[in-house]
Amino acid sequence: MAAKDALGRRGEDVAVEYLEKRGLVVLTRNWRCRDGELDVVATDADKLVVCEVKTRSGTGFGEPAEAVTGRKAARIRRVTQAWLAAHKVRWCEVRFDVVAVLIEPGHPATLQHYEAAF
């Protein structure tokens, strides 16, 4: 596994642990279709929560959450529609979150959770 992939996987693990501690139930991780991937799909019992996880080892290229552009958000919305169709969900309220994880060498991971980010 490439270092970038390992960092991303670790960030997703940190994010999932955080979300579960907040009471969310993770339904799917790394769900893929031809249009892209959803990092984490969860529920808080009232709505579906789609979480985009961005992990960085430093801020030299900006904060992790800054990588979620309008174009990326539009893709996540399209992939979410595919997820809903694949799981035969006709309608439900959906919230789109961003979980930004910073894992700097020699330091504990830090996390910022942006609810309803887009």
From TrEMBL:
Q: Which residues cross the membrane?
A: none
Instruction: List each coiled-coil range.
Output: none
The record ties this protein, via Pfam families, to: UPF0102
What is a single molecular function from GO for this protein? nucleic acid binding
Top-level taxon: Bacteria
- Entry-linked Gene3D superfamilies: 3.40.1350.10
NCBIfam families given in the database record:
PRK12497.1-3 (NF009150), PRK12497.3-3 (NF009154), YraN family protein (TIGR00252)
Q: Which family does it belong to?
A: Belongs to the UPF0102 family.
Name of this protein: UPF0102 protein PA7_16160
Gene designation per UniProt: yraN
